[in-house]
Amino acid sequence: MKRKTRNKIILWVLMLTAAAVLVGGTIALVLTAGTWKAKVKESHEKVCNKGWECSGSKYCCNDTITDFFKVYQFENLFAKRNTPVAKAVGFWDYQSFILAAALYEPLGFCTTGGKQMQMLELCAFLGHVGAATSCGFGVATGGPTAWGLCYNREMSPQKDYCDKYNTQYPCVDGVEYYGRGALTVYWNYNYGAIGDGIKQDLLHHPEYLEQNATLAWEAAMWRWMNPIKKKQPSAHDVFVGNWKPTRNDTLNKRFPGFGATMNVLYGDGKCGQGFIDDMNVVISHYQYYLDLLGVGREHSGDNLDCAEQVPFNPSYKDDQQQQQSG
């Protein structure tokens, strides 16, 4: 090969190599710049501090619960809770609710979206609580929806709710895991998991949920804000719009809304069985609270029921590992 031709080839190789290095460096620079911009954006995300109730979070830039939910409104929603026939007289109060909520408001509990969404979530959460703790019945004064927070524990339990086959949260000798709390907790594995979540030894001391109202509220809020299993939504997520249904969810008629909160919390205990009373009573409490707080049941939202929804966690398929609230 002639020297002149060989030099041209070498020159072309060097030029191509330089071009490749230049392109690669440019791409790397662009990627680095993109990553840097993302980090800068993340680090510059606005957070707000509103004292003891909500601090260090973007959600604290919205109204806090005490901005739109006052003591008199709590008293109005749960007006019958301290009547002589109630079973938890003097236990539930506004202060314990707000103290517990302050732990979850920075995470988006009733602080997600605008004021209407915040009030909707508050009514949705309390709707579940009211239905779970009501001692009202069809002819009760004020109707069945007026008797929320009547109970803080299951009366006359028929069993100890000990799953002896659960090794993650084994039953403690002499301890009974009957229903307690604001979103009623049953079974040893539920007490264990929720106890881990709120950093309380509920496996050994489930009675805490009937002795301390703040802890009872906290356990309920933890349950509302956290999914049963990884890669599944929480009740909070399906209600405020954080959850986007997959194709499988759509095929199983699971859509965002109040109905899906029942699916998350109760599974086939209330969902997928048509318009049964157990499901309807939860909806009734939700809408009753919407009316009392001035939002109005006409804003209940789409997908209000779960009558035709396939449960996220069917009890017949995975009974031992579920962490249903009852």
TrEMBL record:
Top-level taxon of origin: Eukaryota
EC number: 3.2.1.14
Pfam families: Glyco_hydro_19
UniProt entry keywords in alphabetical sequence: Carbohydrate metabolism, Disulfide bond, Glycosidase, Hydrolase, Polysaccharide degradation
GO biological process, one term: cell wall macromolecule catabolic process
Glycoside hydrolase family 19 catalytic domain segment(s): 73-306
Keyword Oxidoreductase: no
Keyword RNA-binding: no
Disulfide bonds: 162-171, 271-306
One MF annotation (Gene Ontology) recorded for this entry: endochitinase activity
Catalytic activity entry: Random endo-hydrolysis of N-acetyl-beta-D-glucosaminide (1->4)-beta-linkages in chitin and chitodextrins
Enzyme class: hydrolase
Name this protein carries in UniProt: chitinase
Originating species: Eleusine coracana subsp. coracana
